[in-house]
């Protein structure tokens, strides 16, 4: 994601809407399609992680956490 900074992976519990989660799952399935047996081979938890990480990078989460009132 960001080659100029050290990045670590953390596991956290977050709250998102059911609609957002369903949209991520639906889009992930569309992106990979079905295999020969008709199953989807995609880890939707990884997709959620990727999307949230990208969002935090793009929206300057580091800057946000530097504001004491946040």
SSE order and pairing:
Elements: H1 18-32, H2 44-58, H3 61-65
Overview of this protein structure:
- The protein contains 3 helices and no strands.
- It is 50% helix and 0% strand.
- The protein is mostly helical and 70 residues long.
- The model has no long low-confidence stretch (mean pLDDT 91).
Based on the model shown, name its key terms.
70 residues; mainly alpha; 3 helices; 50% helix; elongated
Number of E-type strands: 0
Shape: elongated
Helical amount = 40-55%
* Element-level helix/strand string: HHH
**Rg to the nearest angstrom?**
15 Å
Structural class assignment: mainly alpha
Largest sheet: none
Q: How large a portion of the residues is in β-strands, by DSSP E?
A: under 5%
Mean pLDDT: 91
User: Uncertain regions: pLDDT < 50 for 5+ in a row?
Assistant: none
Number of helical stretches of at least 4 residues: 3
Q: What's the N-to-C terminus distance?
A: 24 Å
Quick structural summary:
This protein is mainly alpha-helical.
């Amino acid at each position: 994601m960001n080659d100029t900074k050290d990045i670590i992976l953390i596991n956290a519990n977050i709250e998102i809407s059911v609609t957002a989660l369903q949209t991520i799952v639906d889009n992930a399935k569309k992106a990979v399609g079905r295999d020969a047996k008709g199953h989807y081979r995609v880890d939707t938890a990884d997709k959620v992680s990727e999307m949230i990480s990208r969002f935090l990078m793009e929206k300057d989460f580091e800057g946000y956490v530097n504001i004491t009132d946040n």
